Amino acid sequence: MITSNSHTILVEQQDNLLIITLNRPEKRNACNDELILALENIVDQVNSDIKCVIIQGNGKHFSAGLDLSELKERDIVQGLQHSQMWHRVMNKIQFAACPVVAVLHGAVVGGGLEIASACHIRVADASTFYALPEGQRGIFVGGGASVRLPKLIGIARMTDMMLTGRVFNAEEGERIGMAQYLVEEGQGLEKGIELANKIASNAGLTNYALTHVLPKIVDSNQQEGLMLESLMAAMAQDAPEAKQRLKDFLEGRAKKVGEN
Ligand code: 1HE
């Protein structure tokens, strides 16, 4: 059984789904080191019984980002190490054993947006808003936003958020690519579970290709990217599960596109 080593993270398994909850509601789920390391501990425990992970926040907000009370007296080397600790944990989320869905509401700011960006699918409810207050706090993003966020919303929008303190609301966020799904307030988890169940029903190799290989293809040059795609395509179609799924379709047993 997957268990948490800290009250700052709650975890619940529902069949083959794992629901992780950031749990410092009184501090708006500000991420202190204890919370980030507890999150890492949970992601490390994800095994092949789990087909999809959901990350949500307890209370009024998804996350207020880095716990600023811990920022105080770090020197440069400690600052580097702290940022790299975040990078390690965000990488573990991005390259987890299965896809990860973020269910967002309220503030998704700073490090909270970095956690959301490391996930594969983002569902936002109507209360969600996005910001990078690092610009106004006199610091810089340190949890991977400069690598992941421009891939979602573009470099110009991220630069604007940090230079001017621009806040995007839920609708704007969905339009510019922060979240792929926008739902009514309070409906995020239900939608997240619906999507997670669809993800969990895919062939494991397809999910692996999407979460582990596609990012490498995107970061490659064209020749390498196309070769990686061909290798992945050949491997995927050779798997027994793929052959069975194709047979099911050809013999009329599989759903058509758009059927639930
Ligand atoms: C915090 C934090 C925090 C709240 N660190 N304690 N992130 C920020 O700059 C965002 C700062 N937070 C806010 O702007 C607001 O708190 C919110 C818009 C997110 C929520 O507002 P609200 O009215 O619901 O809550 P609140 O009354 O402001 O906060 C409740 C408590 O949480 C209060 O503490 P209390 O002891 O007075 O009750 C706040 O001080 C505390 N709190 N946010 C510490 N962030 C890997 S590098 C990433 C770099 C960053 O993430 S920088 C961005 C930091």
TrEMBL record:
Pfam families: ECH_1. One of its GO terms (molecular function) is catalytic activity. Coiled coil: none annotated. InterPro entries: ClpP/crotonase-like_dom_sf (IPR029045), Enoyl-CoA_hyd/isom_CS (IPR018376), Enoyl-CoA_hydra/iso (IPR001753), Enoyl-CoA_hydra_C (IPR014748). Belongs to the enoyl-CoA hydratase/isomerase family. PANTHER family: ENOYL-COA HYDRATASE, IP11341P-RELATED. NCBIfam families: PRK08150.1. This is Crotonase/enoyl-CoA hydratase family protein. The lineage of its organism: Bacteria, Pseudomonadati, Bacteroidota, Cytophagia, Cytophagales.
